[in-house]
Amino acid sequence: MTTQAAANLQSYSTRLITRVNRTLEKLLPPAHTMPDRLHSAMRYSVLGDGKRLRPLFVYAAGEAFSVPLSELDHLAAAVECMHAYSLIHDDLPAMDDDDERRGRPSCHKFFDEATAILAGDALQTFAIEVLSSPVHGTLSADKRLAMIKLLANAVGSQGMAGGQQLDILMDMSRASLTTLEKIHILKTAKLIQAAILIGATASDALSPAEADKLALFGEKIGLCFQLRDDIDDIHEDSKTGAETPSFVNLVGLKGCENKLETTYQDALAALNGFGDRVASLKMLAHFAAYR
Fold it and tell me: 120 vs 78, 82, 114, 169, 197, CA distance in Å?
């Protein structure tokens, strides 16, 4: 990424992260209201530092179809709450057992395991509540229903939860590239894909053919995000075990880098025909793949 491109990304992301953070601060239940410990855990997990990539994709997709930012704020916030739920549960001892998240103690370490489970549960349902409420915008009930279905599908048994289950059961000695790709599409790409489609669905101008292209773009760039994570994990921790389910451990570092590049090009190809209006989506795609 050139210096100018990096500056453009920084300016774009800072502006929109400020918007979604302001919205989250306003929407989340105040920490001092009962049950205050649960509300504190929810706010702790959502309002900490983060890339906010999924909300950024909501904004970029909506902007591509001329949706006002004011109509996208609560959609972006809902997606981030759903993402935060997934991180809380991912970190639990029964899952990935991580003591740190975003540079500070994970939710179950800062509070306790039971509170963390409840905070994740509450954020999941809170995301659906935000999407369903007409108080937060002028979108029709049909559009809200479509968005709820997109988000629910992205985190259920055919999405994130299903991918996590497959990941837990995976035996790297019998793994295939196809199996691993399926896991990461479900675990990671589906929510990114949903974020993009939710933003675009806010428009009256989105055609079924355009939705299909955006869905393919979201799947491919979500897979790129995971491939980049696998590469970064190797660079950051030389002790990463050979049994860890990752593309690097299956095809090697060079093979993973090649897979990243071809998948990234497939993602860009899915946007052919949209013209300059998807420039922000392409910028975020490059960040997801080569951050």
Answer: 13, 8, 10, 22, 23
Distance CA 123, CA 80 (A): 9
233 residue type, one letter: D
Question: C-alpha angle with apex 193: 188 to 197, nearest 5 degrees?
Answer: 155
- Partners of 65 in the β-ladder: none
Q: Which residue has the tokens 């880098």?
A: 257
Q: pLDDT per position in the chain (291 positions), as tens?
A: 788 888 999 999 999 999 999 999 999 999 999 999 999 999 999 998 899 999 999 999 999 999 999 999 999 999 999 999 999 999 999 998 999 998 899 999 999 999 999 999 999 999 999 999 988 888 999 999 999 999 999 999 999 999 999 988 887 777 788 899 999 999 999 999 999 999 999 999 999 999 999 999 999 999 999 999 989 887 665 444 455 678 888 889 999 999 999 999 999 999 999 999 999 999 999 999 998
Cβ neighbours of 264 (radius 10 Å): 21
Helix 208-236, helix 177-184: angle, nearest 10: 110
Contact (CB, 8 A) for 285 and 269: no
Strands 104-105 and 100-101: antiparallel
Instruction: Supply 161's token pair.
Output: 């939860």
Which positions ≥6 away from 269 have C-beta within 8 Å?
none
Residue with tokens 């739920």: 85
- Going from N- to C-terminal start, the domains of the chain cover 3-290
Model confidence pTM above 0.70: yes
3-290: CATH homologous superfamily?
Farnesyl Diphosphate Synthase (1.10.600.10)
Give dist(CA 41, CA 46) in Å, integer: 9
> For the chain, what's the residue count?
291
